[in-house]
Amino acid sequence: MGNVNDSVVELEGTVVDLADVIEYQSDSIVSKTLVDESSTTVTAFALDEGQRISEHAAPHTALVQVLEGTGSITIDGDEHELQRGESIFMPANVPHAVDAPAQFTMLLTMIR
User: Fold this and answer.
1) Amino acid 15: pLDDT
2) Is 35 buried (19+), middle (13-18) or exposed (0-12) by CB count in 10 A?
3) Is 20 in a helix, a strand, or coil?
4) How many CA atoms lie within 13 A of 30 on its CB side?
5) 3-111: which CATH topology?
6) pTM score of the predicted model
7) Which of 25, 44, 68, 109 could form a disulfide with 63 if both were Cys (CB 3.0 to 4.6 A apart)?
8) Torsion sign over Cα 20, 41, 47, 102
9) Where would you find the membrane-spanning parts of this chain (predicted)?
10) Residue partners of 10: CB distance under 8 A and separation at least 6
11) How far is CA 63 from CA 14, 90, 95, 99, 112, in A?
C-alpha cells in the first residue's frame, strides 16, 4: 500500500464511522489524508460554520461524500446542497467550490 495515515492502518479491519476520524476547529477547515496512493487519494475534511474552499479546478475526477451535516458544492456555477449520506462527482478540470453554511464533514476521493 502507498502512503497511508498511521491512524487508518490502526483501523484496518474494524468498523468505523468516518465522521469520527476528524474534528472541527473553530473558524477553520481541517483536513486529514487517509490514503495517498498513485491512483487515489482519500481525504477527510471538517469545515466549521461559514468556512469556504474557494473556487478552483483539479486535474482529476473527484467524489465528495457528506459524512455529517449539510454542505453546498458549486460545480461550474451550479450549486448543489448535499446532506449526510449524499455524494456528488466533480469532473476533472471544471471549477468547483465548497461552502459550509453550518458545520459539516466530507470525504474527498480523488481518482487519478
Assistant:
1) 85
2) middle
3) helix
4) 16
5) Jelly Rolls (2.60.120)
6) 0.88
7) 109
8) negative
9) none
10) none
11) 23, 6, 14, 16, 11
Q: Identify whether the C-beta of residue 19 lies closer than 8 Å to the C-beta of residue 12.
A: no
At 45, give phi and psi (nearest 5°). -125, 140
**Residue pLDDT tens, the chain, 112 long:** 344 555 565 667 878 888 888 999 999 999 999 888 899 999 999 999 999 999 999 999 999 999 999 999 999 999 999 999 999 999 999 999 999 999 999 999 999 8
- What are the boundaries of each domain within the chain? 3-111
Nearest in space to 45 (alpha carbons), one of 75, 77, 73, 10? 73
Q: CA nearest 110: which of 68, 60, 70, 71?
A: 60
User: How many angstroms separate the CA atoms of 79 and 107, rounded?
Assistant: 18
